[in-house]
Design brief:
Layout (H helix, E strand, L loop, with lengths): L4 E6 L7 H11 L3 E6 L9 H8 L17 H8 L2 E7 L1 H9 L5 H8 L4 E5 L3 H5 L1 H12 L3 E2 L3 E4 L5 E5 L3 H12 L9 E6 L4 E2 L5 E2 L6 H12 L3 E6 L11 E4 L3 H11 L5 E4 L6 E3 L18 E3 L3 H4 L5 E8 L3 H11 L4 E6 L11 E2 L1 E5 L4 E3 L3 E2 H16 L1
Helix pairs in contact: 1-2, 1-8, 3-5, 4-7, 9-13
Bound molecules: cytidine-5'-triphosphate.
């Protein structure tokens, strides 16, 4: 995908140090970040910190022609795909709402006609003041994305609303905004993730080692390419990606029902979930006591979600195999009427369950086969989505 440029406006707030993490994370995700700082921001964090990490100059003044050309705010505003102000002080929010332009961030914002994201950070009294609330309402009314703030411990020692949202949340909304014209714009994709849990009794369950990382990476990649994403997820230890509609389920039956409802409007279904194939036939209402030396738990088949859900959308499955990888995956592709299947060898020690990497072989219904090398799960997701995008077009 074409590289996107983000203007990151940093203003005077204790949370300014968190902007470093935001800039780094966005760069890691392939975004070209240009940092602009108000004079107040430079009192909290040095421009050098951003310059050293991003290896490019930071603009701190309207009068600085050295790096950004003779009219820095115009040059910057013409080069960008989005403007994120994080942290956004009460002062910059007032300037943005009022159309004032007397520092590099407010001037650039006024000259910029692309999407604006604002992550407020200030004391609760300032945040709750009617003036700030009116200014935020004005910005929202113009289409700005206001991220947070969150309620919690404040720098002043008090507790209340005004803490800047976590960098990961801000990065998520920024990626969604930058991706809005991507190759999945206008498409709805349903992604399933995680390992379902089938109750044995109120405290125990039958499950598997799925971490959910592959499905979450796919959901994020879809979001970053402009899709509306519905993530149907079994329990995982992961934070749901922001900007994605998340539906939490536990059992295979619940995943079936939620997925069937979600695909009604969908252009594609990607089943990365590890669905339990069997469940205890009669889950005990009370905790099973260890009275016997051995215990036999009768199991019954669960519904095969991919096989049973009908509809006119691109169908993508995964095949988790420990032997005869390509042979078994091809059989599943045919049996479940899939357009694509991503097969992975679950015995590989460097990939698969729990790992951040995966090595998959993508097969299509025309006999095509693409053996991908070991890649991060995000890269696997993007390679898979390249194939889905082709099918959708
Ligand atoms: N799947 C499903 N419903 C199930 C089981 C699996 O929709 N009850 C989906 C998985 O999400 C995956 C694909 O079917 O996309 C293949 O899953 P896998 O576990 O590899 O195969 P199974 O069909 O369960 O076959 P087996 O366990 O016999 O290998």
């Amino acid at each position: 995908m074409e590289q996107r440029t983000l203007l990151l406006g940093v203003t005077g707030s204790i949370a300014a140090y968190k902007a470093v993490e935001i800039a780094r994370d966005l760069e890691r995700r392939g975004v070209h970040v240009r940092v602009l700082m108000t004079e107040a921001a430079t009192r909290f964090i040095a421009p050098l910190t951003f310059e050293a990490l991003l290896k490019r100059p930071v603009t701190t003044s309207l009068w600085e022609s050295r790096q950004s050309g003779p009219i820095p705010h115009i040059a910057l505003s013409e080069s960008a795909d989005a403007l994120l102000v994080a942290p956004a002080s009460a002062d910059i929010i007032a300037k943005l709402a009022g159309g004032m332009a007397d520092d590099i961030v407010s001037c650039t914002a006024l000259a910029f006609n692309g999407p604006l994201l604002v992550a407020p950070a200030m004391h609760a009294n300032m945040y709750e003041h009617v003036a700030t609330q009116a200014n935020l309402a004005t910005l929202r009314g113009r289409g700005a994305v206001i991220i947070g703030p969150e309620t919690g411990e404040l720098a002043s020692g008090g507790h209340g609303a005004g803490r800047m949202s976590e960098p990961a949340t801000i990065v998520g909304w920024t990626m969604k905004t930058l991706g809005r014209k991507g190759d999945f714009a206008g498409r709805t994709v349903v992604v399933t993730a995680g390992g379902t849990q089938e109750p044995i009794d109120p405290v125990r369950c039958v499950t598997n080692h799925s971490s959910g990382k592959m499905g979450y990476a796919i959901a994020e990649a879809c979001r970053d390419r402009g899709a509306d994403v519905i993530l149907v997820t079994a329990p995982t230890g992961l934070q749901p990606p922001v900007g994605v509609e998340t539906v939490n389920v536990v059992t295979a039956q619940q995943m079936y029902e939620a997925t069937r409802a979600a695909v009604r409007e969908a252009h594609a279904l990607i089943m990365a979930a590890a669905v339990a194939d069997y469940r205890p036939s009669n889950p005990a209402a009370d905790k099973i006591k260890k009275e016997r030396e051995t215990l036999v738990i009768p199991l019954e088949r669960t519904v095969d979600i991919l096989k049973s859900i009908e509809g006119d959308f691109i169908r993508v499955g995964f095949a988790a195999e420990s032997s005869s990888l390509e042979h078994n995956a091809r059989a599943k592709l045919a049996e479940k009427h899939l357009d694509l299947i991503a097969a992975n060898d679950i015995t590989a020690s460097d990939a698969g369950f729990g790992s951040d990497n995966n090595r998959v072989t993508i097969m299509d219904r025309d006999g095509g086969i693409d053996r991908l090398p070991l890649l991060s799960k995000r890269e696997v997701a993007d390679r898979l989505l390249d194939r889905v995008a082709k099918l959708l077009s």
